[in-house]
């Protein structure tokens, strides 16, 4: 499945967030959206999911405008991993993940859904969350919450997975675990993945393509080795640094020296 964004513009409260964005994500792609806070990454992801309506421009899902598709039809094709789990006291992980079956089952199907839906159990197994199934949501750690969110998205059985900061508030170990899991799910299920990521090194290591947003427009789009440059660090992230090649993974790594405009303390 593919998503195409054509000349997309979005404003909020009179402020222009995105302007003239063009982007095509082909079937099976793994694309990382990067940029500073406020650059429009999460907004673009929500527009691609049909959760927001653009001021102008079009989002196409497999060649059809999202505006022509019913909400449930979009949800059967596109799963969104939001930044946080809903605060639902007393809900277990299995009960939450079962809600991912709603787009396929519908309200009546959910009413008669068994406690242990086969595809729900498969989603828990694929994301390594089976051992969490009977835990209450409010007892989970950060890493466990991310696995649960992924299981919820996987339970929808869609071809496209949109991830809004899947590594937020996680330590380095759990960041790597989550991104490795996403990569494995993509390979196992042939998913198309678009992820908002803050760590540029993670984006370069796990995604095959990086789209860098700057002031609401696409500043760069391409393979990590071509996109991640000292010029990108300066222009998009307002830092000065060097880019080297990781000796193990062969991907770009950023060595940050200082913020652009920061006065340098030359005393040792």
Describe this structure in words.
The structure is a single chain. By secondary structure, the chain is an alpha/beta fold. It has a single domain, classed as Rossmann fold (3-Layer(aba) Sandwich), CATH 3.40.50. Helices cover 34% and strands 28% of the residues. It is built from 10 helices and 12 strands. The strands form 3 sheets. It has a 6-stranded mixed sheet with strand order 6-7-8-3-9-10, with helices on both faces. The termini are far apart. The model has no long low-confidence stretch (mean pLDDT 89).
CATH-defined superfamily: P-loop containing nucleotide triphosphate hydrolases
| Amino-to-carboxy terminus distance | 55 Å
Quote the CATH topology: Rossmann fold
Shape type: globular
Strand content: 25-35%
CATH class: Alpha Beta
The gist of it:
Pfam families: ABC_tran (PF00005). With 268 residues, the chain is an alpha/beta fold.
